[in-house]
Write a structure and sequence with these properties.
Largest sheet: 4 strands, mixed
Strand order of the largest sheet: 1-2-3-4
Number of helices: 3
Order of helices and strands: HEEEHEH
Radius of gyration: 12 Å
Structural class: alpha+beta
Strand content: 15-25%
Number of strands: 4
Helix content: 25-40%
């Protein structure tokens, strides 16, 4: 399965949960996660989408650590089977 396909399925699942999975870009600050998942109740997290088996680049991992230190949830999504769990954790249902 391609990264694009996983990303589309994630966006659809977030939408079905009543939220948004917006594309996140930050000019001048490379390595930020691909998507910002916004769920009802003010719940949010950053999601890095990868093709199956692919890992984040070192700069991406650095950005993930920074965001986590700031108190944000950050996920790496590389399998369709992870989507439900990620949405549940973001939404506070875990």
């Amino acid at each position: 399965m391609r990264e694009k396909t996983i990303e589309q399925k994630f966006r659809a699942a977030v939408r079905d949960a009543g939220g948004l999975a917006v594309k996140f870009t930050s000019p001048g600050f490379d390595g930020v996660p691909d998507r910002l998942a916004l769920l009802p109740g003010g719940r949010m997290a950053f999601v890095e989408v990868k093709a199956p088996g692919r890992k984040p680049r070192p700069l991406q991992l650095e950005r993930h650590r920074l965001l986590r230190r700031l108190g944000f949830k950050v996920y790496v999504l590389d399998e369709e089977s992870q989507i439900e769990k990620i949405i549940s954790e973001i939404g506070g249902d875990a």
